[in-house]
């Protein structure tokens, strides 16, 4: 199997490319370490939504609905306020219609490429975001820490490893998610109607008009119950929904099946992600976002147990880490 890791470009933007057999992937260090492409070159599958050349400026201005953006801290915070250990951090209100802060500070800034390499079985790249006093992120999250992200490509698909290391002297919040943007269809000859999906959802959080959880659950519809077993179109209705995760057989995942191609894309996200967001752009066919998230939306402002809502605290010197994987299963074998 041929493997390569090299510096190149993607639509004119600096990129690190990984190749391993029939798979290739590209990550954009200067745009939030966004894993912008994951492809099967033999079958011409493009699993992630990618920006066209003419969309690059708009993408860089708002790099949320392409590839795998990293959100830290993820999703919405009421009035931009983030209470933490007796202090209240003030985040910019960047969603005018809700009056909230949205999506954190790391998805649209440069990360450092620490290393990239390949051997006979796989290729890999490691990127890091080191936050210290004077860094743009430190302005809002005044802690010294490093987020390190490694992508590895091999015959089994794309593997992701992320860690957050608290290198400061005080406990820090560790809240992370991915706004993963999956193509449906991802095969060139398939239609959206060929696709059904499954997600390991549990309960649905009730949301206010400001898209903030009330702390209560709401009943799942009959269609939402089908999400737990599969076969439901990812565009069955407009979704901007928030759920707890409920791992099945020890795994937390989304599966997207192309019945025409007889192929299943598996997005295994690890059990540290205790919440799912799912957004499908108003049920517009083409792509949807199954978003694994450590924490409940607006978690620091919700009066529920920290372990229940994924409000993770890292003490000085501590490291949080998790893995994920995107891979395919051929159903007709």
UniProtKB/TrEMBL annotation:
It comes from the Bacteria. This is Aldose 1-epimerase. Coiled coil: none annotated. It holds the Pfam family Aldose_epim. It comes from Paenibacillus germinis.
């Amino acid at each position: 199997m041929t493997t390569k890791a090299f510096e190149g470009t993607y639509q004119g933007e600096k990129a690190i490319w990984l190749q391993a057999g029939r798979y290739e992937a590209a990550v954009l260090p200067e745009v939030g370490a966004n894993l912008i492409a994951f492809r099967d070159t033999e079958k011409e599958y493009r699993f992630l939504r990618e920006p066209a050349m003419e969309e690059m400026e708009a993408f860089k201005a708002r790099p949320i609905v392409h590839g795998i953006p990293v959100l830290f801290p993820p999703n919405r915070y009421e009035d931009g306020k983030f209470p933490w250990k007796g202090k209240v951090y003030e985040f910019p209100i960047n969603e005018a219609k809700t009056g909230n802060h949205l999506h954190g500070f790391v998805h649209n800034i440069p990360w450092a490429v620490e290393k990239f390499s390949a051997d006979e079985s796989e290729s890999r790249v490691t990127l890091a975001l080191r936050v210290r006093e004077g860094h743009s992120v430190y302005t809002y999250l005044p802690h010294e820490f490093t987020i390190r992200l490694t992508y590895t490509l091999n015959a089994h698909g794309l593997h992701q490893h992320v860690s957050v290391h608290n290198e400061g002297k005080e406990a820090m919040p560790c809240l992370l998610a991915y706004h993963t943007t999956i193509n449906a269809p991802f095969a060139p000859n398939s239609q959206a109607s060929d696709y059904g999906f499954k997600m390991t959802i549990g309960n649905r959080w009730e949301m206010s008009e400001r898209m903030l959880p009330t702390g209560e659950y709401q009943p799942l519809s009959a269609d939402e119950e089908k999400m737990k077993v599969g076969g439901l179109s990812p565009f069955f209705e407009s979704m901007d929904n928030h759920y707890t995760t409920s791992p099945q057989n020890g795994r937390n995942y989304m599966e997207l099946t192309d019945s025409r191609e007889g192929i299943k894309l598996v997005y295994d996200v690890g059990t540290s992600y205790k919440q799912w967001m799912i957004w499908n752009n108003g049920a517009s066919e083409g792509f949807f976002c199954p978003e694994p998230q450590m924490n409940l939306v607006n978690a620091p402002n919700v009066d529920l147990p920290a372990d229940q809502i994924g409000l993770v605290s890292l003490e000085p010197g501590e490291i949080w880490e998790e893995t994920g994987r995107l891979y395919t299963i051929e159903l007709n074998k």
